[in-house]
Amino acid sequence: MATGAVRLAVSDGTFTIQNNCAVTIWLGVVSNAGIQPLTLDNTMLSTGQTMTVTTPSNWGGRFWGRTGCSRGTDGTFTCAMGDCDGREQCTVGGKPPATLVEFTLSGYANKDFYDVSLVDGYNLPMAVSPDGGGQGRNATDTKSCGAAGCTGDLNRNCPAALQVTGTGNVVGCRSACDAFKEPQYCCTGENALPTTCKPTDYSKAFKQSCPNAYSYAYDDLSSTFTCMGGRYTIVFCPTATDL
Ligand SMILES: *[C@@H]1O[C@H](CO)[C@@H](O)[C@H](O)[C@H]1NC(C)=O
Predict the structure, then answer these.
(1) Is 138 close to ligand 1, i.e. is its CB under 6 Å away?
(2) In the structure, what pLDDT confidence band is assigned to residue 6 with cuts at 50, 70 and 90?
(3) Which atom of ligand 1 lies nearest, measured to the CA of 143?
(4) Structural domain boundaries of the chain?
(5) Which distant-in-sequence residues (6+ apart) come within 8 Å of 209 by Cβ?
(6) Whose CA is nearest to atom 5 of ligand 1?
């Protein structure tokens, strides 16, 4: 028997995904560039259901919720919101607007980085928090092992110019970048630097409904959380106790 081999214990990422919304959600997940794609055993989460997604320890990528999905006779799988090129297993990000939960596991200093992003707009309320309080919490850092996300319904508070309507009601809120394609909203061109891309009235409206989510590309100081341990719970339609 081989002896003497020292293996560092690097644990996989474990994500518990919970649907507290009144509607059925099909989970969307896509890995970052250069990270191995995930294949989910199942994508559908009925109201009240929970699923577990396991990833490699160094995984990075994003989760979102798709709604109004169905499989066509031609085999495509299309969703009214958050669709990923007509596939059940996403290989590209969801069609905006879609609320995102973003992760980099075991990044700089072996920390996990996570946030809720409204940079691609908003469709469903989402929250994310480390299981059991997480590992390596720094009590003097409010962004250490905290809960990210919001309970507020941004669809209700969406500026008129950004609203996406479904059957009579607002089902999504576009980002100002997606809606207007202008440098000051997209942080492109002369607004391409953190110092030149500032909050706008639109990003401020997002921020008001969802204070600790990313509202535009360079919003990172107030929105990125760090923790360790690789175990997190993501809730769709969270209540105050999930935050
Ligand atoms: C904890 O957070 C505070 C505030 O951000 C920081 O100054 C300090 O260096 C951190 N401590 C450790 C051990 O990382």
Answers:
(1) yes
(2) low
(3) 5
(4) 5-155+211-242, 160-209
(5) 150, 152, 153, 154, 157
(6) 141
